[in-house]
Amino acid sequence: DDTITKISGIKATAVDTTGAGDTFAAGFLYALTHDLGTEKAGNLGSLLAAKVVEKIGARLDSIPSEAKTLI
């Protein structure tokens, strides 16, 4: 399939960008492996990456409530 899916970025106030790419990949791959499609996968990865850069340290303490609407 040659379809290109555009995913909008999510605004974040970054304090530490450590782990942003890994967190995006984790959200994206989670959604793909749960058959949610590439658009939801990109949106979930983008959301999780935006949330992780707003904290010091490369981890989220919990899944953001906004993510639950995507899953």
Question: Would you kindly provide a written description of the structure presented here, covering whatever features stand out?
Answer:
The protein is mainly alpha-helical and 71 residues long. The chain has 3 helices and no strands. It has helices at residues 20-33, 37-52, 65-68. The longest helix is centred in the middle third of the chain and has 16 residues, at 37-52. It is globular and about 40 Å long. The protein starts with 19 loop residues before the first helix and ends with a helix. The mean pLDDT is 93.
Oligomer: single chain
Main pleated sheet: none
> What is the chain-wise order of helices and strands?
HHH
Helix content: 40-55%
Number of strands: 0
Supply the number of helical segments.
3
Beginning-to-end CA distance, first to last residue: 23 Å
- Shape estimate: globular
Structural class: mainly alpha
Mean pLDDT: 93
Short description:
The chain is mostly helical and 71 residues long. The chain contains three helices and no strands.
Helices and strands in order, then pairings?
Elements: H1 20-33, H2 37-52, H3 65-68
Helix pairs in contact: 1-2
Characteristic terms for this protein:
71 residues; mainly alpha; 3 helices
